[in-house]
Amino acid sequence: MLIFLLRRLVAGILLLFVISTITYVLLYFSSDGIAQNILGEFATPEQIALKQAELGLDQPLPVRYVEWLGGAITGDFGRSWFNSEPVVTALFNRLPVTLTIVLGALVIAAVLAALLGVAAAIKRGWIDRAVQLLSLAGDALPSFVVAIVLVTSLAIQAKIFPATGFVPFSDNPALWLMSIALPITALVFQLVAQAAQQFRSAIIDVRRRDFVRTLRSRGLPEREVVFKHVLRSAAPAALTILSLQFVGLLGGSVIIEQIFALPGVGPLAVLSTTQGDIPVVMGVVVYTVIMVILVNLVVDLVNGWLNPKVRVS
Amino acid sequence: MKLRSRAAFAAMLTTGALVLTGCGASGGAATGDNTAGPTGGTLSIGSLVDVTSFDPAASHVGHYMQYYQPVYDTLIMREPNGDLSPMLATDWEYDETETELTLNLRDDVTFTDGEKFDAEAVKANIDHFKVANGPQASTAASIEAVRVVDEDTAVIELSQPDPAILLYMAASAGFMASPAALDTEGIIGTPVGSGPYILDTDSTIAGATYTYAKNPDYWNPDLQKFDEIVIKPMQDVTARVNALVSGQVNAALLDAKTAPQGTGAGLNEITNPVDWQGLFLFDRGGVQAKPLGDVRVRQAINYAIDRQSLLDSLLLGNGEITSQVTGTSSAGYVKKLDERYDFDPKKAKSLLAAAGYPDGFDLTLPVNSADTIINAAIVQQLADVGINATQVVIPSTDYRNEIFTGKYSIGYYGIFQGDPWVAVNHHIGPNAAFNPLKYTDEKSAALIEKIQAGDDDAAKEFTEYITEEAWFAPFYRVNQLYFFDKTVTVENQLQQAVPSIYNYAPTK
What we know:
A: mainly alpha; 12 helices; 0% strand; B: alpha+beta
């Protein structure tokens, strides 16, 4: 177990290193106009030159990269070139919002997909068809389309939920729930689609197996057979799909945060990328990679706990 | 461990239902609650931008002004119609050389940290503004120094006459912060000014909500029309229109596509033509693209563009077609020039033939990767008169920087229509940031000198000259579309993308 974790950790660090290097190099090649962006339209060439020296934009690529890497390893990602806010502070302030919706959507999608998959696999008939149709819809509709439909119907017309904004949990738990309900629903819709299908197929498959028949013949109630045994064997396939979709979820959350004006990492990522705020962009990239690595690791661990047969030792 | 997901799910649903029924009435309660009346209540504004630093030297104009105006006063105030009136400066006067501007200052103003506002404070602020190298730093370019004469008299010494200085003292360069706070890091997150409101840091979440509470010690209660101002940054227009229509904000800027939703919801609209959009003919000297050096060719380009159909299809009619780059609010505006070049491809072709290009010519056109429709329209309309434009696609994030490097002879852009001297320095004069090939000739240089001296007739003559010489091929003046609900009245601010904070009042 420990060796498994260690191996994943090392692989994760390597991945982080490779991706950050590639990103940094790509950003380097498009960093020409950044000083101009920061100083605005009226900047004189002297001002621009001064700004470039100040930010180290006139240094060669290896020097700049090593400097950034040195800081990053110690946890210092520098400051935003546009407002001097430390990158780590900017990210930490916005992480709770993004993590709430993203992880919330992931967990709810997993649970919902399991339930829908079970219902479809066991009851079959119209429920099965309904779930398949729903999955098709979820697959076809991008999260922002769902978001806009939800906002128009539930926020603007029915006035049940707020159309934009985030209320921190510490301010008002009830309003917090209201402010994240629509964004999470929009994200869940697409996630559930594929995962529900996976659960359904895997459950149908597992139920046919001999050990399930044995359990039934021992007199175990059907509910226990399904939820305690079958689901455990069927889960890995579906949860793996979910973890693979997590990357897409992070991307979708950027758009969702824009539409709902949530102060998450999304708007920060968009703004810093379009402005060319390299320290912030690198911070966002590193955070994204870490998130993906962590989620994949957790899903693997959960799979291993659910079903010892898939454990990698 | 048993997976009790079904029970857990049921529990979740029940809790959810209870929560929903409990808060059904207060759903959407995180909104601005506006009590109508002559003063008071909360004003909620949705903003296109987010403030990055409350250091006044970091302030931008346009949309950003709304973040700074509640907490910082300016030396001079610009009225909604563009007139200048006293604010921290009670009156001002030039000497005969127009290089020394004497400001008489109020003596009864204190910053929120207890520091007194005086001439030393003015000096400290302007000195800081110049060295901080912020986005508006160039507006102080002609300021050499600030001389403190006595407590309430300061003299701004200019290196040359600058007719726009008074306007700049009503904008970013004129914001006055407490000198004690100026060089501290704290000012980035916490403004210390003398303005009508104070930033309520407890109710402020950076990036989401900025809450400004009434300043009880403010020297001009007439400007305090609300008890509280809340500004929410919403970069996405979908978020803004949803927030407006659902009542979460009282006012916000929309665009041509979302405007119908605002009108449909019964909101009020005011329009403000702040920018013009069209083609910059950088290479009017014909250095890189020889044909552009001939005025007939440049005029042909003007005749080749079907401005009205572009306005109707791209901006849904929200604007005014024009042939001049000078805005209606400028002293250099000449009404009849709006229609100088109508849509006449035949005339364009005959002009090209007269200039020696009966079969047209080739031209390199840089295009913004995000503007696919207008690029196609421009290429098509130029091709219709024989000008073969080869597109060079530039990523939208680099576009503005790229086209003004001097590599290109022509480029499409939208730009601010300022007062004559502002416009000269902005995109018309030989040293303007947006005139990369630095074209100049004798006649324009002579007129520019007169404009610098404040000669309005020269400004009109200049507009006539550059329109006749077709230095540009403007398409239209674009309307900013500002929407607000029935609980507030709002007035446009001249030459500003969104209204100044002072222009909002509760509906009587």
